[in-house]
Every structure is written in structure tokens, then in C-alpha cells.
Automatic annotation (TrEMBL):
Its main location: cytoplasm. Specifically methylates guanosine-37 in various tRNAs. Belongs to the RNA methyltransferase TrmD family. Its EC number is 2.1.1.228. Homodimer. This is tRNA (guanine-N(1)-)-methyltransferase. The gene is trmD.
Length: 216
């Protein structure tokens, strides 16, 4: 089964390059995931193709209007069922590896990216199943958060990473365990030595040397 991810964005171009580079590109080439980016403006049916408006109650900044989101989301929902409709927002649940693991089991995921001051809250109320924050700071738009979610989820789909890059022993896949630092040749560089335990080739010792706990 190929996972499908739909992203709705007011600035779709900002997603093009990252979604078509490196492992995300490979995942799509290998048919492990299909990623569709929908331009919110294509669903603005008034003659000015307006997607934003001033917020009720005043205040600076513009809000993304509800109608283009409703049109686009309802069209997608008519075509298939979504396991998760994710709204990235600074007020959401903190994103972590456990959530990435959960999302990686989905067949269909939709991500609604906010922009400017955000989106009309009726979109969130009506459709969002998962409100996700990627950290305690404010981004200019949900696109970067969408990329964080997509990248962390897609690399977990079996067959996306090669065996040698397996995600299973990555940091945070086993509770709070963080991988210890890696080294490659040369064994000594500018007087800095690779730890003996990693050079010994003793597999048991080596694995123990690979575990450490969070530094901060
Ligand atoms: N006015 C909003 C507020 O104060 O909460 C911030 C809007 S922000 C400039 C525009 C969009 O970026 C948001 O609608 C959301 O989709 C996204 N965003 C910003 N910070 C985020 C974060 N920490 N995690 C996830 N998404 C975020």
C-alpha cells in the first residue's frame, strides 16, 4: 500500500524543492508515498482569487479565509478517507518520535498549513483531527512544520531507507535513548582519536558504546 499525503498551502512553491530532494524524492520514486500539494488559491472562487481577509475584532495581519479550505478539503474527503487531518499550530500537541511512528502507520494523511496570522478557526474546528506544534516558537507558516512531519514520517515507511540506513536504531526509537556520536576514518584526525571501543570491533562492547542519554 502506498501512503498518500496531501498538503494544502497558500505558498505551495515553498514545498516543491524539499519534497523533491534526497530521501523524500527517493520515497516517491520507489512508490512508497505519493505527496500532493494543493494551492489554496485554486479553490478561491471569487473573481480576485482572494484567500485572505481581515480578522473580525480588528488587530494587525490577515487571516486565511475559510471557503477555499472547505472547498479543497471537502473535495479530498469525497475521494478518500483520511486517517489524520493534521493542523500544524503553535498551540498544538508537541510533535515527537512517538507521534511520527503513529502517523507512519496511516494510509492517508492531510496537512492544512496556516499562513499570515493563521486560518479562520472554523477550518480547525470542522476538520482537524490532530493539532501539532513542532516547538515553542512561531513560524511564518505551517509549511515548514508540514515538512518536518512529512520527513520524519516518510523515513519510517518500510523500504524508504536502505537497510544500512535503518531507522530502527536511531535516537528516540527506543524511549529516550539518544545515539552516541559516530565516527568514520581516519581513526586519528588532527590529534583527535576515535574512541577505542568503536575501533575494537567487539560487537557487544560496541553496542553498549552506542547508547547515551539526552544531554540537555
Ligand atoms: N497567530 C498565530 C499565533 O499566534 O498562534 C501564529 C500564526 S503563524 C505566523 C502562521 C502559521 O504557521 C500557523 O497558522 C501554523 O500553521 C504555523 N505555525 C507557526 N508556528 C508553528 C509551530 N510552532 N508549530 C506548528 N505550526 C506552526
Amino acid at each position: 500500500m502506498t501512503m498518500r499525503i496531501d498538503v494544502i498551502s497558500a505558498v505551495p512553491d515553498s514545498l516543491t524543492s524539499p519534497l523533491n530532494t534526497s530521501i523524500l524524492k527517493r520515497a516517491q520514486d520507489r512508490k512508497k508515498v505519493e505527496i500532493y500539494v494543493h494551492n489554496l488559491r485554486d479553490y478561491a472562487y471569487d473573481k480576485h482569487k482572494q484567500i485572505d481577509d481581515k480578522p473580525f475584532g480588528g488587530g494587525p495581519g490577515m487571516l486565511l479565509k475559510p471557503e477555499p479550505f472547505f472547498e479543497c478539503i471537502e473535495k479530498l474527503l469525497d475521494q478518500r478517507k483520511y486517517d489524520h487531518i493534521i493542523f500544524p499550530t503553535p498551540g498544538g500537541r508537541f510533535y515527537d518520535q512517538k507521534l511520527a511512528n503513529k502517523f507512519s502507520l496511516a494510509n492517508n494523511i492531510m496537512i492544512i498549513a496556516g499562513h499570515y496570522k493563521g486560518i479562520d478557526d472554523r477550518v480547525r474546528q470542522k476538520f482537524a483531527t490532530d493539532e501539532i506544534s513542532i516547538g515553542n516558537y512561531v513560524l511564518t507558516g505551517g509549511e515548514i512544520a508540514a515538512l518536518v512531519i512529512i520527513d520524519s514520517v516518510v523515513r519510517l515507511i518500510p523500504g524508504v531507507l536502505n537497510d544500512s540506513e535503518s531507522a530502527l536504531n536511531d535516537s528516540l526509537m527506543d524511549g529516550d535513548i539518544i545515539e552516541a556520536p559516530y565516527y568514520t576514518r581516519p581513526a586519528v584526525y588532527r590529534g583527535m582519536e576515535v574512541p577505542e571501543v568503536l575501533r575494537s570491533g567487539n560487537e557487544k562492547k560496541l553496542r553498549r558504546g552506542k547508547k547515551s542519554s539526552r544531554k540537555f
